[in-house]
Design a protein that fits this description.
Elements lengths: L5 H11 L3 E5 L3 H14 L3 E6 H6 L5 H12 L5 E8 L15 E4 L6 H17 L3 E6 L5 H4 L8 H11 L3 E4 L16 H10 L4 E3 L7 H10 L1 E6 L1 H14 L8 H24 L2
Parallel strand pairs: 1-2, 1-8, 2-3, 3-4, 4-5, 5-6, 6-7, 7-8
Helix pairs in contact: 2-4, 2-11, 7-8, 10-11
Length: 278
């Protein structure tokens, strides 16, 4: 199936009041697992490559993006490729060769006016080359910070931010946190609903691995469209690898990486069915 654009997947999901799962890719096994799980679920999906993942691959986006692109091209479900949590403009170089249709530009740690100005500049560049831009308002940081009232996204500020930047989707701080290994985050569902009513672009939930199933479904019902998932896949991956390496005689990585890939695929399938009420 041909590549789909992130914007198309988000608008289709919003029309159905579904969520789109966006899964972070670090290795080839991650990418294969995301496509496999999405095909099993029969759902569209977004493969995300973060700035940190690019750094892990020596600062070179193209090899891992090319692998993702080929997997998307041969998938039986619609899929898109997204560049996630980019803070440096240098990582936008070469996107026309990487089959990337959207980027998340993250200036959320900057003061509001600085975030707005930097994001607006990126939006102008990206729209000229046909790329969808996601930004973040509020700060979805570590567990303690993200639960502090001061970092929650204000609906009036969000409406102004979207209008002044022209951004296409907005990641909001509503109680989730990045890199949580338990699922105890408490989302402010009323705030999500207020944000949905305040802005006309799709809302994005980062740190979704720390949110339990019922709360994720409630968040989608309240107005979240794109649901970012990374740590949950890494937990499935590393748990499987640890189990495989209990055999001290094992030296062939295919034996434990095959199981790790299957474990991640099962997690992807579960999350996508959850987000679409399948």
């Amino acid at each position: 199936m041909a590549h789909e654009r992130t914007a198309v997947l988000l608008e289709a999901a919003r029309a159905l009041r579904h969520g789109v799962g966006a899964f972070n890719v670090i290795t080839l096994e991650h990418a294969e697992a995301v496509i496999l799980g999405a095909e099993r679920a029969g759902c569209p999906v977004i493969l995300q490559i973060s700035e940190n993942a690019i750094a892990f691959h020596g600062g070179n986006l193209l090899p891992i993006a090319a692998a993702c692109s080929e997997l998307v091209r041969t998938a039986s479900i619609p899929a898109a490729i997204h560049l996630d949590h980019v803070t440096k403009r240098q990582f936008f170089d070469g996107l026309e060769h990487a089959s990337v249709s959207s980027v998340m530009f993250d200036a959320s740690e900057s003061p509001y006016e600085d975030n707005l100005a930097a994001t607006a500049e990126v939006v102008r560049w990206a729209h000229d080359v046909g790329i969808h831009v996601e930004a973040e308002l509020g700060e979805v940081g570590g567990k303690d910070g993200a639960h502090a009232p001061g970092v929650r996204t204000d609906p009036d500020e969000a409406a102004q931010f979207v209008a002044r930047t022209g951004v296409d989707s907005l990641a909001v701080a509503v109680g989730s946190s990045h890199a949580m290994t338990d699922r105890t985050a408490e989302l402010d569902l009323a705030l999500i609903s207020r944000l949905r009513d305040a802005v006309h672009v799709p809302l994005v939930l980062h740190g979704s691995s720390g949110v339990n199933d019922d709360s994720l479904q409630a968040a989608v019902a309240a107005g979240i469209v794109k649901v970012n998932i990374g740590t949950a896949l890494n937990i499935a991956y590393t748990d499987s690898v640890r189990a495989g390496l209990e055999d001290s005689a094992l030296v062939d990585p295919r034996k434990f990486l095959r199981e790790a890939r299957q474990s991640m695929a099962s997690r992807v399938e579960h999350m996508l069915k959850l987000l679409t009420n399948a």
